[in-house]
Amino acid sequence: MQKIVAPLLEWYDQNKRKLPWREQKDPYHIWISEIMLQQTRVEAVRGYYSRFLERFPTVQALAEAPDDELMKLWQGLGYYNRARNLKKAAQVIEKEYQGKFPEDYEILITLPGIGEYTAGAIASIAFGQNVPAVDGNVYRIYTRLHADASDITRAAVKKRIRGEVASVIPEGRAGSFNQALMDLGAVICLPNGKPLCGKCPAADFCIAGAEGTYDKFPKKPEKKPRKVEERSVFLLEYQGKYLIQKRPEKGLLAGLWEFPSQEGRLSSGQLHEFLEEWGCAGEEVELLGTGKHIFSHVEWHMYGYLIHLKQLSERMTEGMVLSGVSEIQSEYSIPSAFSMFLKKIAEGEGKSPQEPMR
Predict the structure, then answer these.
(1) Does 34 qualify as catalytic in the annotation?
(2) Same domain, 25 and 119
(3) pTM as predicted
(4) 20 to 30 Å CA-CA from 202: which of 8, 42, 233, 305?
């Protein structure tokens, strides 16, 4: 690891990516960007980052953010607990640190949603502390450099690698060193496909690169197959508006808005039984389309049913909101799992209905 420090920093100084959160060393901006970048591509984050800071420019503004507005701004980034933890952490900073962003790594790591990597990134980049920021990029680089076949999901392995990275951080350049590793993993030592070893500043010291075994590292245990669930989604239309409801505050997609749905694929007969149970009459039912959405642990196979209602019962509207398409799009945080159906009804407004189900 010591051998790569000088050539890595030289490469970074000449090739570092121009990213909006690198324009200054504001810890709030760095924090927001790092949370957004978890499980998300840089290009996808740029627009979200600027919109988020425009609406919530300070820790105080974020601490006071209305939940629905926060979720709406986050819509499309996924992993919505990240946004909830941002607000929780902002509230802690406001209450316990008078709105001043903590500089100490040991304090940062206690804030909601901030783990070792994010605390290390903020502490090193914003405050120049000699602490590592070890993420998937760094594990990949390290294991390829050393041809290390250790299981990187094990806590002991993570601790060892983090310690070795920490031991070579150059005094006064911790932030640059950590960002250099990030950039190297993002544009050279690629996670998918062949890495660009010919352009790598660490090529002279990389065992996996020399042996052509880069695809064997890092080593992870095989993932268990995701559970597959069939799901029926009901787009209940009444006088040009649609019923939506808020999901429970805990669990998958907690606190977001959705079209009513239930597990399993319903037949035409079951759909009509469903409407009768809710005290509503359906003029016609259309199969609006099918879709698939993949979460980390479960895969939804969805069937959307557009149901034109003749009447609304009190039971059906309980806990639901009747809203027009444009209002749903602009004001409610609809997770991407349901966005394909929202798009379909938006496209279909004013068009003749499809052939109803029999």
Answers:
(1) yes
(2) yes
(3) 0.87
(4) 42
